[in-house]
Protein 1
Amino acid sequence: MSHALAHWWSDRGIEIIPNVRFSTPDSYEFAFDGIEHNSTVAIGTHGCMKRYEDKKYFMDGFHKMLEVLQPKNIIIYGTVPQEIAAAAKDAGAHIHAFPSQCAIAHKKKKVR
């Protein structure tokens, strides 16, 4: 549904930044469909980095996204581990990171 709306808005001249979502390798076939190559994409890492298995799936998908979409800019919501920063840099993509609301809340708790 989000791909259909993005396409519809884009056809009407509204600039969009697609949020790329994937899970296991069998989702890659449709996860990157309709997303413009060499553009700006958004991706969230919140909740994907704690367990080894989740991080592995995320990193595999992230590498596949870099290969398929070749984004110029990646907006990341959540933590940016070194592996992500290095992979993006190697692919020629610029990262623009924003902390999650959860990270902001935890930071405020520590300050008090």
Protein 2
Amino acid sequence: MEGQSTLEDLRRQLEGRLELLEAMLPRYRSLSDALKGRRWQRRLRERASFVEEVLARDAACLEAMERATRRAELESWPKDSPVLKTVQQVRKCREVLEARVHERLASLTVVSGAASLELELRQLEALVRTPVSFALEPGESFSQLVGYSGRTLQTLLGIAVPLVAVGLPIALLVSTLTLGLTLGLAGPLFLGLMLAVVGLVAALVGLRPGALWLTPARLVWLPSSGEPVAVRLDALPEGGVRFVRGRRGLRVEGDRSVHLPWLGWKRAARLRVWLEMLRHPKLRERSALVAEPVEWVCFPALHRREDGTWFEGQAVLSRRMLYFLPGPEAGAALLRSATGKELDSRVSLPWVLDMLRWQPESDVDVYLLRAVKASRGAAWPAGLARLSQETFLAHELHISYGREVLTGRVGWGDVAAAERILASWR
């Protein structure tokens, strides 16, 4: 029994296992504390030596706890044994660390299966080892700003600060003069008002709108608080992009998980289209061949066929061709021709073209020709189509090709691009 053996005897009998438990106890505690709070990723990187030691010695620590517990049962050690107290402390600290590692890992990526400290700590350490870089990686030909979140709140605070700082003191002064408030009552009100102004200013200064960028290889999210997150697009599985909050936000799950709840329905649907396109390996790889984006102009148009029937749709003006895709499903047709995929949400033709700008022009011609053929549209070579100069002066396009005619109005923001493209026709 332990009472008949000194602690030093037990140390010798446990063959260094007790020393191992005593050494691991502060490591478990330190890592568990590092995972608390908002800056846990930075603290985890700072304690990399503790992470390595825990990963290297955790299996031996489990064996030491099991060996000491089994010996205590065989020899009927008392419950207040110093060895058992150490084992209990180590076991409790390890369980707390295991739960926190699991929680933090689940906040970054999809976790499946039972919790395992060693496996999940390795995965967590790999995810946070290197901070997200905002520089373009090799093969990334572009970085596109998708949008911001939190700007509405920042705007409201920017309006509220001057209103509160100027308007309320005047209202307080008028109330004091007209209602006869005593200085004893007006003083605390004025002090509370000043504290409110200071709080609003502090909130305005500290508020950082979240920002979202997209490259051919990554989706980079800079939240309003916390560290940036990058999701590798080649790791996005089928169904890895889902709508949330009534299709006003997205949940993106790949090697990392990102929750984007307040994008708005249009921005969420557009980003979903872009991510579905860049999931396609060929589109990711071919974008590395493009140094400058291809210039296109897309506008609503009417097409009159040779038999005199008119069709509504959208036209795509390029330096090589003029394309017309009829009906409201032009965007879905082009997405299908480029990726073979169909989405159950809105697919706008300009959204698809915005991402295809970063593909070789010959590839995009192939995709557009496929979409035209599938939708029974039209494709006219630039050298054979005739432009009416008079109508273009009013930003109206009237283009003929044999007995066929296409008419439409270019948006004001696209007039300069249309002029450059049509100049190359001439």
Protein 3
Amino acid sequence: MDAKDKDYLISRMRKEKNNPKEVYDLGDLEWFPTDEEREQKAPKECQDEKKIATVNKILEDFKNGNSKINKDLKEILGNVDLVIAIRPPDQWKNPNGGMVFKRGENGENDKAVLFVADVMFTEAHKDKLPGLLAHEMGHLLEFKQRPNDDSVKTKYMDGAESFADVSGEMIARNAGHTSMPWAMFMRQSSKNGNDPEHSPSGQYRAKTIMRTIRAFNKTESKKKQNISERISSLRNRISKCDTKAPNKTNQNISKVDFSTLKMYQEKKTNS
């Protein structure tokens, strides 16, 4: 990613703090569901094994992505007790998701619950699932760096959504997925007047994701161009070497006096 794109994305993370909606209060940050609360939000009858397996398969893709951020995520997930919970349509009618976290105590693993709307698994919305999950994994990366000091907890949302969007696309693309369908949905939903809670507008977030995608596409294009130029240069060097150094074996054969060779063979035969 070039300096211009990097500066742009970092500036968007900083600008979020100008909107008070981006800052959760301390109660929101500290809430973690009891088993009873989780079952209310995600009833047992909605916990479809196939849907949960679909989420786990995408998370496995993320963990096995070939980049440092994916490896960091793999290490973090290895030390977090993660529960996947499907939210029914009567609670979340639109594509949505969310994560809540809790620090481990007495050497125990940290805990997290990943809520996913049931509608994310429908034919109309399943292409948005990787982008949503990548975004939530971006929040998990941020959570591991979040300070424990209560005096600063209320400010953690400054830039956290953009951080999750940018890092989420990095996680997704390095695992063969993309956040583009999720970004396009957020943009259109925002235009229809449906913006996410505790977050900048969907259009703002969509623009951040799309700029991230363009920045990485540009970087990959430059890498491919550099490789192509290096290959072309190498071929030219090889071609010049072939011209300057003709085949010596062929040269020697062309200088052989075949009449002399024939006389030698006849003499050898008669002796």
